[in-house]
């Protein structure tokens, strides 16, 4: 049964002195394309409403679509301002995946067959899924990552059980530690220290899958978290989340895996954007002229 989710994402900047002007890009609105339709092992999602509130009022606002189908808002503040607040409010209907049984009951193709199908062949049309095979800004292709993946991806193993086992191993062998990394932390450093946050876990899993020759993409969004028993839900206590989507052949399509929480994303998850890694889909980024030092506050609430 479909469930409705509401998300309020608040980002606030306070500048030490007035910024003369700024230009910002937001990726906060979920797609409305068929990339979010329900699958055997992938939840579906329908956007019901989205509102973007910017204070103070921007000089200009433009909306476009990037190469991955994500909705991108561009806005400018062409006057002095010492505070910026961006509030994204959205409502979606989340549809559970179609398969409700055990993964052992599901037939999935062997992983090296998918690798062979993704290889370029002269005279053959290149699939749009092909682009997620290659390394990207934050996800390198390395022999060490390939070797790490071969512990789960042995010859003739089905792709879904292999990816599920990899997800479980990352969850068990890596420690989630808030603030332990930054966006500049490399996959090699995360592999060495065996700790990080959700975007690090996603980058590691992407690096392993791509190093094996598979096509996998970065997914950004939110996850509903429940408060401790007897405690009220705190507004702004949730956070943005990241996980992985793996191409598992034409019959299964894209299948999502969350190595941070060791599960296939279900109706508690809200998908916002898809890309090669975090650099393609940050919630907000921009350029500010002046302003000096600034403080940043981010609050996310998922209902």
Automatic annotation (TrEMBL):
Ranges in a coiled coil: none
SUPFAM superfamilies membership: Cysteine proteinases
Xref: Pfam families: Bact_transglu_N, Transglut_core
Domain Transglutaminase-like positions: 190-261
InterPro entries: Bac_transglu_N, Papain-like_cys_pep_sf, Transglutaminase-like
Superkingdom of source: Bacteria
PANTHER family, A to Z: BLR2979 PROTEIN (PTHR33490:SF7), BLR5614 PROTEIN-RELATED (PTHR33490)
Name used for this protein in its record: Transglutaminase family protein
Organism: Limnobacter humi
Record lineage: Bacteria, Pseudomonadati, Pseudomonadota, Betaproteobacteria, Burkholderiales
């Amino acid at each position: 049964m479909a469930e409705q989710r509401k998300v309020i994402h608040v980002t606030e900047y306070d500048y030490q002195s007035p910024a003369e002007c700024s230009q910002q890009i937001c990726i906060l609105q979920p797609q409305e394309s068929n990339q979010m339709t329900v699958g055997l092992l992938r939840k579906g999602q329908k956007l019901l409403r989205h509102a973007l509130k910017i204070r103070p009022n921007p000089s200009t606002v433009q909306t476009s679509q990037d190469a991955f189908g994500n909705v991108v808002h561009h806005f400018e503040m062409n006057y002095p301002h010492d505070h910026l607040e961006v509030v994204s409010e959205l409502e979606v209907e989340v549809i559970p995946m179609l398969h409700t049984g055990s993964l052992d009951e599901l037939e999935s193709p062997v992983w090296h067959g998918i690798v062979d199908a993704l290889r370029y062949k002269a005279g053959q049309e290149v699939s749009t899924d092909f682009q997620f095979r290659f390394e990207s800004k934050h996800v390198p292709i390395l022999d060490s990552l390939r070797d790490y993946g071969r512990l789960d991806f042995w010859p003739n193993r089905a792709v879904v059980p292999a990816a599920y086992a990899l997800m479980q191993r990352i969850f068990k062998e890596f420690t989630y530690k808030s603030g332990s990394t930054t966006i500049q932390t490399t996959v090699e450093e995360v592999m060495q220290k065996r700790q990080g946050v959700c975007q690090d876990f996603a980058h590691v899993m992407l690096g392993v899958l791509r190093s094996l020759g598979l096509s996998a993409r970065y997914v950004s969004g939110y996850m509903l978290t429940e408060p401790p028993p007897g405690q009220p839900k705190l507004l702004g206590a949730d956070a943005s989340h990241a996980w992985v989507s793996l191409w598992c052949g034409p019959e299964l399509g894209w299948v999502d895996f969350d190595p941070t929480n060791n599960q296939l994303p279900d109706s508690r998850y809200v998908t916002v954007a898809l890309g090669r890694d975090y650099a393609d889909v940050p919630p907000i980024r921009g350029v500010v002229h002046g302003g000096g030092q600034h403080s940043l506050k981010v609050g996310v609430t998922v209902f």
